[in-house]
From TrEMBL:
It comes from the Eukaryota. InterPro entries: FJX1/FJ. This is Four-jointed box protein 1. Residues 1-25 form the signal peptide. One of its GO terms (cellular component) is extracellular space. GO terms for biological process: cell-cell signaling. The lineage of its organism: Eukaryota, Metazoa, Chordata, Craniata, Vertebrata. Keywords: Signal.
Amino acid sequence: MRVFSANLLALLFLCTCACVLYVWSRLENRLEIHKRKVQELGFKSVHVERSSDLSAKTFRALLAVPAVQKLYFSNRIDFRNVSDGNPVTSANIHYSTSGSEMKSTESEPADQIIEDGIFWSERIEHHLPVAFSGEHARAWRHKALGSRVVSLEPGCGRTSNQLATFSDGTKACVRYGINADQVQGETLSYYLASLLGITNIPPLVLSELDGENEQWASVRRKIDSLQWSGRAIVSLTEWIVNLTGVVTPEPLRQESIGLHPFQEELGNKTMAELLELMQWTDLILFDYLTANFDRLVSNLFSLQWDSRVMERDTSNLLRTPRGDLVFIDNEAGLVHGYRVLDMWEKYHSSVLGSVCLFRRRTAQRVIDMHRSRDTRTRLLQVYRDNEPLAADLGFLSEEHARILQNRVDTLYKHILRCKGKYSQL
Ligand SMILES: Nc1ncnc2c1ncn2[C@@H]1O[C@H](COP(=O)(O)OP(=O)(O)OP(=O)(O)O)[C@@H](O)[C@H]1O
Ligand SMILES: [Mg+2]
């Protein structure tokens, strides 16, 4: 009997211990979830504060943006610890170039969207088709240079842009540019995108309007009537059919919290929505580097007098029926954009600050260009190797090349900050 009572007591004791342990672990879980929510809310409130500044109607209020941004990043990250303890490495980077149709309308499993804290997962990347492959671009450039232009007509925006038809019936947008800076900006932006592995810009090639150039012989009169100089170098960009407008996605509007690696929020999205957001993350990095204000940034500026601007199509951004974003009209990038940086930098920084999610390959290229400090050399090389008229059109000035490298460095630091902030979550 005594033995039986002792066993019963021991059993009761064990059960009590198990119950205490269970209750304790549940409490810990709840505490963790609560902590995370509080962090997110704190983050949201700062962002909303920043956003409301942006939507303010006066330019004076817009000038306050960087200060708030500083507050937003401060006291949260030990910068040196991030770079020492969590280096972003190139290990395990593998990109599929195959892609597939973006048709799914079902939500994607939340835990398979993000990898290593701040990167779109390889699983999602795998579904992203290459918009314009290197091979396609080379073939198009070759064909475009060897084809006669048989007509020039409106259809590519301003009169300084004309829709050209080649003798085989295919088309291109010809950009004359108000000055050589614009043609340079357009061309160098294209080659910078190719350095970054961003394939969303249609193939581009330069051509001289020169009287000797047989390519323009059939439209010589039209060129004269447009008052285009015979010595000018113009850019030709492949004409893409069936493009439609693109509205800025909700997470990137000024009233939103931005695009951050929160599984809970991304988990509600379909594959098509995720793939579009992924392309936007590339676009924002690209426009930051080139200081191109003629897309999302000009919308932010317009908010001062047009509170619904974000609900309309974004300038110079289009979409193919397959869902590829097409970044057109990059004339403001690199040259003109750098010249007017004083005016636009607040907006560029603000847009960049709203994104902490990246394509691994794009981030890796930025990291490489930061570490080797050779952005100018790389850009010059890819430009010279692919563009026969590179020497005639010219390249970035020393000053602009320095600005580009500085922007690469700033972007690198931004990526590290994001990594420090989100990889422990
Ligand atoms: N490569 C292209 N393929 C197809 N359509 C194009 C292409 N480039 C330009 N377009 C068409 O021409 C329009 C104007 O193009 P673009 O932005 O280059 O010129 P713009 O003079 O700056 O005009 P906007 O002031 O509308 O921006 C685009 O919205 C698009 O409809
Ligand atoms: Mg335009």
